[in-house]
Write a structure and sequence with these properties.
five-stranded parallel sheet; four-stranded mixed sheet; 19% strand; TIM Barrel; alpha/beta; 258 residues; binds zinc ion
Length: 258
Amino acid sequence: MFDTHMHGEFSCDSSMKFKEAIEVAKQQNIGIVLTEHWDFDYPTNPDKFLFDRDEYFKQNMPLRTDDILLGIEIGLQPYLAKENDKVAEGYPFDYVMGSVHCMNKKDLYEAETYEELTREEAIKLFLEDSIKCVELHENFDAFGHIDYICRYMPYADKHMYLSDAPELFDKLFKLLIEKNKPLEINTRRLDNKEAVDKLLPLYRRYYELGGRYCTIGSDAHYKEHVGRRLDIATDISREIGLKQVYFKNREMIVLEGL
Ligand SMILES: [Zn+2]
Ligand SMILES: [Zn+2]
């Protein structure tokens, strides 16, 4: 198995060193991909989620093996597509994950972002922004945590449902499929049985529309979280029929037998 999403010392919000993640990966006998944050123009702090790419490779390349890979998580925003598409150019990243952390230039992490919005309206805006992002960006390999908004939106009901915006979910999934971008099954919220039940129809819809591949990622910021709930995510992918993949040298590799 491969945990394709985690943060080390080049992400300002991480408490883990890459070497620690490698230790855990060895103990658990799994492959890992480091995906440090890269968010241009982050609303609350425009330069905080950027890092020195040369230094990243200088420090991490000696640690790279067939199962310890080097990636980046780029924060997609529609107006940044041109700039974002250049971030990985000229660097030997194994994997570029595209993730949406903002909508309408507002941080999904901040409670103010949701002021005067109902849950349904927030989900729609998030999906509309995600669609624009996927339309405009080319240089990424897979789409991170579709349920990111559910981590932070301040509503009694913390779930997203297909019925919130069936056309928008379909549009986003069709675009990803057309562009050959697997969907990540992020394990962060999978400890919650209810969250799993609500996410299943989304991933199943992606499959129904023709999606066949997924990545699995813990989004670990602490060493205790590396490889967390890969088993639950694997149950989900198996139940739906999605094949797990990871990327090496920007090429998709299917994990057989999972
Ligand atoms: Zn993220
Ligand atoms: Zn992340």
